[in-house]
Amino acid sequence: MKVSVIGKGNMGQAIAKNFEAAGQSVEFIGHGEAQPTFGDLVVFAVPFAAEKDLANQYQTQLAGKIVVEIANPLNFDNWDELVVPSDSSAAEILQTALPQSKVLKAFNTTFAGTLNSGQVGDNQTTVLVAGDDEDAKESFTSSLSGSPLAVMDAGKLKRALEMEALGFLQMTLAAKEKISWNGGFGINQ
Description:
By secondary structure, this protein is α/β, with parallel strands linked by helices.
């Protein structure tokens, strides 16, 4: 499978590393590329604030694609709230902006350090994935088979609300040095 990653920060690189470890072809798409040719699976490894512009710019090219949204829509001015409506999520907002795409929520409950190591403490790093398209979730799960990561289906896209709350809690704990940026919540399967 060809995977396109928009964003080459710590998360984008760690996510790409795992798809490559699973034998997938990975490319990075730079911001502002006029007519990129996207792979079957596209990862938005960018802050929530950048997603709307990307969705507007690439809506046509992303039609029919699996789009993985990873953001925790945190208010970075005060680190004390999410900036999406309390009954929605960044992933649901992106799905509305990309109605012809199959949006999945994933990677937001893991830090780059745990994606790189494949471990959270003594547990294998588990990537939760939520989405309304079952085939898209299965393709996502299969595309990471052979990587150091486990993947767990968290349900429909509306579960992104709880996933973002968990990601928010984990980030604020790390910012207050209660947990490590190389740690976080693990799932013992």
